[in-house]
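Retro notes - structure team

What went well: the batch runner handled both jobs without manual restarts.
What didn't: labels got mixed up in the shared folder, which is why I'm recording both outputs here explicitly, each with its sequence directly above its tokens.

Job 1
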Amino acid sequence: MLMLRKFFKSRPTSRFGLTYQRDLNVAIIGQSTFAAEVYKLLLKNGHRVVGVFTILDKGNRQDPLAAVASENNTPVFKIKSWRKGENALPEIVAQYKQVDAELNVLPFCSQFIPMEVIEHPKHKSICYHPSILPKHRGVSAINWTLMNGDKEAGFSIFWADDGLDTGPILSQKSCPVLPDDTVDSLYNRFLYPEGIKSMAEAVDMVANGTAPVIPQSTEGSSFEPSVRKKALQKVDWSRSGVDIQNFIRGLDSSPGAWTIINETEVKLYKSSIWTNETPTGEQVTVDTIQFPAIVHSNGLLITCNDGLKINIERLSVDGKMMAASNYGNADTVQETIDYTDQEKAYIPVVESIWKNILNMEIGKDTHFFQSGAGSMDVVRLIEEIKDKLKFTLKNDDVYMSPVFSDFCNTLVKRSRGSTDDNTRVEYDPVVVDVNNMKLQFAKQLFINGQFVDSESGKTLECINPADESVICSIQCASEADVDQAVIAASRAFEGEWSEMSPRDRGAVLYKIADLLDKNREELATIESIDSGAVYTLALKTHIGMSIDVWKYFAGWADKIHGQTIPISHARPNRNLTFTKKEPFGVCGIITPWNYPLMMLSWKMAACLAAGNTVVMKPTEVSPLTALKFAELSVEAGFPAGVINILPGLGSEAGRAIAEHPDIRKVGFTGSTATGHAIMKASAESNLKKVSLELGGKSPLIILDDCDLDKSVRMSMGGVFFNKGENCIAAGRVFVESSIHDKFIDKVVEEVKKIKIGNPLERDTHHGPQNHKAHLEKLINYCKKAKNEGAELKIGGKRVDRPGYYFEPTVFTGVEDHMFIAQEEAFGPIMAVTKFSSSDLDAVIKRANSTDYGLSSGIFTKDISKALRFAEKIDAGTVFINTYNKTDVAAPFGGFKKSGFGKDLGEEALNEYLKTKCITVEY
């Protein structure tokens, strides 16, 4: 921050009438990485930096501006002070004048610069200030922006005068202040990158004679003192909770707000307003607060005197940083780790990085911050570790392990994939002994990285369809819970998730795939007891394909890009047009009960790979694997708020997602009727984008030249796979008359071999239907089919045993007008129609006569007929001599009342991306 005293009273106006040139001789006066980046950009833009004036070395460590200037052989002057008392030091001023600068650029300057220097160049001096002047003049402007609760932050570039940040404005830019912003996050997200560009743009405007001179208004002006005074850093607990939160984050990460905890002085870092249920933990006293604070697994929870709760994640006690969750624990000896030979090779690389940053020899006890490192050095350290060792660390890894030996241990643990306690989320578990294992899963809503009770307190019962027993009761989300989840998802999208590079986001997606794989037996068992899926099928498909989906889209995360487009030029100028693919923001996902985890994965993996955040409602009848997934997402490293999972009723939670004004995209799989309701709600709320995967009545045509045994096997899979609870199930089978009877005989013979029973038994083929209402629907479906004249060959009734078991069923003689020919069963019911091969187009026309168009199939050895069928059938998926062959790389979705939009494959990404077109004239 520039600090100037009154050295003169007026400014010659003639300077604004000088002749300007395209490049300038510039002197840079300042310090820090910020100034170093401005230096590099000015050189890139063609200007000449004739001298750099910076501060003295700190020990053996020179300022980054001095370091980068020395590398380019620019004269560097390290100034202890520019003046003595009120008088400029003549020898320093004379030294400055020798460089013959035409413009002084002060990107970041902590010294008082004499007006003899400010006024000497013919274009005078321009300064950077991190506030929207005239508000927050002074050295701690950005701190006071946060401490005062401003909704907008920004910076000004102004012409230096004899006041304190009072000169005319050259340019200003602003950004919104996010709920959890700190000084570091504002600098890193906006003030730093945009400020560097704007300083270079300002120099160009000076060179071109287009730099404005806008007098600062005195209206709204303020000046606050430096926060370096310790008295100004103490938390005043008599203020409101919101004011206290703003105060703490306004001093994070430097110099830090302090208070008294258990009669000890403690600094507070990484604060946020707490909206979840109050956790249990050890109570401590905080200064003058009437309520005890709670040390819990995710920090220190402080209840302010007005009732607002603030959570602190990091503390500094006696200069030692620690996780707030460890406060009060006895000091522990640093863990001893035996390094492998490969891990030992990391150490000299890390030592070299530390040495380059700190400019000193590194020992095992070297303290990163006590050696002079600052917050921007943390960013540099993490980036260099990523570039050279391909490991992604977090800022907290540096803050919590600032000693070299400890940092190396942390890095090695991260390289092994180990996690800390804060990567596991606490909850009151449901514990079930089943399938020779002890299952443990949550029963609450998952919002902002925590399991919490619903606002209403309502619950839902989860029923095991195999024996009709109650597994547990889970919390049922309300509209208010959806609101809270959207707030959390919005904060995550605007903050840490968007700040992560696409490659880092992809790494998190790979991690969740690995965790799903690691826990596949447990997940398959939960899926089995909750949805009735046969365990072996759940292992292979429900869980196996989920793992594949996350791996597939993890690979896409850093490969999403636009394109350049040739357009007509605006002569004599030229134009460049290009597109960007951008995420929507908060997306809603609503999934069905037939493949609970797989449907979550199909939609959520693409959504997150595209950079969005999610509010997801799993089906109320089979939500347990979604809640287990939520638990694993914390361990995988998803930031809080990126994933929110809310079991609840479609009529309340689902409707709230479709209608919410801050959700910009909804992905839904389910019934056509519900799809209509979602489209209507989405249109009437905010015209959010919608993708729908709805009902189906998929035709399967079997010609007499087929491989009959394969056709029987594949058609049975097409109908009975996953108990018929399969969106692309072959809802109607057309069999050529010449092989019809033989086909039916073989099918009936094979159906008799299907073992119906406990889905956890390894030799079971066919488990229970998902829930009671669906079982009753299938019974009524068969009754209607018989009443309309279809012939029942086998099955058609409930199995006489506890559980929602329904016999695999075969009907023949199905005619086009029948209910069974037009409407989806979504169960193990094969509807067979005989046809003549004399006219393939006629049977295709019959197959197309439903309102649905999800999938289709044909079995024939005649490739011409197969391709003719593929061309004319009105369905989103066509199988030839196979069925149910889906793959994570192949797009999946339907036509007509089966919906629109795609899951899986590259096309799925487009459902969660918007295209921005940008045109530049030059």
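Job 2
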Amino acid sequence: MTVVKKELTLEEEKLTIRDISIAAEAQTKQGDTFFLITQRWWQEWLEYVNQNQASTVNDGSASEHQFLGGSTALKRPSSINNSDLIYQAASGDSNVGIELHDTLVEGTDYILLPQEVWNQLYEWYGGGPILPRKVINSGLSQTELAVEVYPLRLQLHLMPKDERSTIRISKKETIRELHKKACEIFSLNPEIVCIWDYFSHQKHALMDMEKTLDDANIQMDQDILVEVVNSNSAGGMNSFHENGAADNGMVALVEPSQSNFSNAEGLSLSKGSTRNGNAELSQSQHLASSGTEKTYASTGVSTRGSTCGLTGLMNLGNTCFMNSAIQCLVHTPEFARYFREDYYQEINRQNPLGMVGELALAFGDLLRKLWAPGRTPVAPRPFKAKLARFAPQFSGYNQHDSQELLAFLLDGLHEDLNRVKHKPYIKSKDADGRPDEEVADEYWANHIARNDSIIVDVCQGQYKSTLVCPVCNKVSVTFDPFMYLSLPLQSATTRSMTVTIFTCDGSALPAACTVTVPKQGRCRDLIQALGNSCSLKHTEKLLLAEIRGHLIHRFLEDPLISLSSIKDDDHLAAYKIPKLAKNSKFLQLIHRREEREIGISQSSVGWKPYGTPLVSPISCDDVITRGDIQLIVHRMLSPMLRSENPGFNCVSRSKASSAAANASRLTAASEACIDSSLPNDDPRQKDMSSSKLANLEKLPLQLVDENNACIDLTVGEDKSVKLSSSSMSILVFVDWSQKLLENYDTRYIENLPEVTKYGPATKKTRTEPLSLYSCLEAFLREEPLVPEDMWYCPTCKERRQASKKLDLWRLPEVLVIHLKRFSYSRSMKHKLETFVNFPIHDFDLTKYVANKNNSRRQLYELYALTNHYGGMGSGHYTAHIKLLDENRWYNFDDSHISPINEEDVKSAAAYVLFYRRVRADHHHHHHHSVSNGAVSSAGQHNISSRK
């Protein structure tokens, strides 16, 4: 029976594998091995063993299924070939160094087979390469089994030698195992090697030998520092100092083997780090449990009897987005008090908008755990499970946006704790000219009648929103509640733009005009600023165009085009034209000059566009002749005539008076062109234009007609020109010969400046940090609604793109401010790394509050914020939180907590800021910032300080 496989039928192969699979899946446990097999081969095998499903004959003889379904039998698959799953290594067929392609997807690219199944298939078919992977515990409760298809790939940096190596290791391995492997790779004596978390090339923390890489929050492709330390002193490494970083206290190092001081596992303190918190407070349980009272080296924080609230949250796999938001809420004094008291009677179990109270209960339980004495980090698994059930968008182990979670959480908690059991339906009345105070209070009362919870008491404020119809100027005022403010990060709220202004009537030379406009403004803002700057007459208007390649790329006719669509290196022209008769077209004059080959023959390459096109309106109510176009062009070019040229009968010397003289000389001729009051066959008009033209030199003009043919305008000046009915523009080329260039000074049309030039002069203004106040101003500034949000104007009875202005009206006890660092478009996600300078004390909102009856100063102080480091979709969240009882700041990084200095709270990573109202009586004393006997905005709850 050596040739077993020959005698197996398809059906038997199929059943054998099925039985093995069922048995194996049932008893899978941590540490088992699964094997990757390419989906392509597996699919082929499945089709092979299932090919005679339709048949009742099962003896598998070939003659039998030749006839089934009329198709020929599928051949037995050849040997297993997993090569499409790996990078082709040149290391022969040894399994060392086999790397999977980085982005394989289970079920699309590969299937995972239990060991017994793989063994059986391999015995039948052979092949390879063999790709074994281990089963690990993962998931919320660490009870879900998962196959670790991609073990961690870590970059080891050996110091001081500066060698590098890449290692693959399971995230379930301990740091001790990593230490051992690193020593093997670099052939080092383990006694003198330290392993550091080297996230983004900064020494963060010595790593605790007993922890797994998973617990230490080590991510794929992270850097690890392998440091060789000279051990001269008797105590091994205890005299060693982390170079530069930990000069503020002792650093106890890990002795890999027979440690003399077993208590100092990985306790390292340094300040200013962004991740993994350096002074790992999880240490404190370890130290406290040893029965001896110890204090942190040089920080003065006692580990016993210290404040509650310093409890970390474990990272359950990319859950830092959740942990950072939760810590900020948990350390909001009003919430800390509320959820530690008896809040159960306020739970609303029948609110269809809520989570039947479950979210509030899960949050309350978590908050109590975090405020309980003891420093053991809490795993927020029950909370995460509840969250995922009600908000599936936060399920799984992807990184999410901590602000989106926060918004959901505040909303969900509010509905779960809403004291209103039956919401009345209230229709808001129109303001109709009543005083704002009255309307605002009415809106707020209506809001409170439907929404009344601790969340409303603490976090909700009220905006005044004013909409103005652009057509009938109808003003609509509403007062809407808000839970947080989402502020835009405009690096500058204004922008300077340079546009060159051209006249069509020959009255002035082209001139560059620089104006300041709102950065997020529209074309109408630019046109208005230009009009004011170049003293536009009320009978004129500006036609804005973008110039590319010496042609008009587009007319910016829609006043609502966003200025952000105009780039700094674009070139804009504005043409001053009369606000004239409806039926007119634009004559576009395009300049061309001859380009010559540099070479022996000096042959001409042809006429190429150059300079800036000029534009003039042309009336279509009557027949236009070739002579008329000659006159219009003469008039447009007249300011550039060189006055000293005798052939152009002009005597005056100065450029301006020459332009004026030329203009007046041409006025009569011009009027003849534009004056459509004269009937077309009136002899006076013809005489006038031909006699005027007689004094002028013919210009080499060509008109592009409706068939795209060029018509020479230097001959037959009385011939009429047929204008295309479809196009708004008439193209005329003027070909500048050397002779013609001697008569005109064309530099005025040649160098069109860019919209914004960043010369050295503007550098300084660009690097000034953005302040939180200017973000707030940008948010409150009047702006047109985006086209998607058109407003239905009750007066016009049409949807209009109204302009909208926001004002703050009623401010909450706790003001949450979200800095809009992330922008999403269909193709791109983008993160702004702008540093925003936000006040920690005395954030003064007095002048931004529109309700002037409220005379007291509106001062706020910062007590918590979340930070986001890194790019989109990946990245890491932490929180900086001020424990108000202690009046000191801490960095909360998942399970790691470390003290930080107040000046280190501000960084470009700040994402969501939490401010609390400062009572007028003590806003000068930063140190007692715990509110005493304050009344919340809705006036229901007396909030006393927690001591």
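One thing worth noting from job 2: The radius of gyration is 39 Å.
We'll revisit the folder naming next retro.
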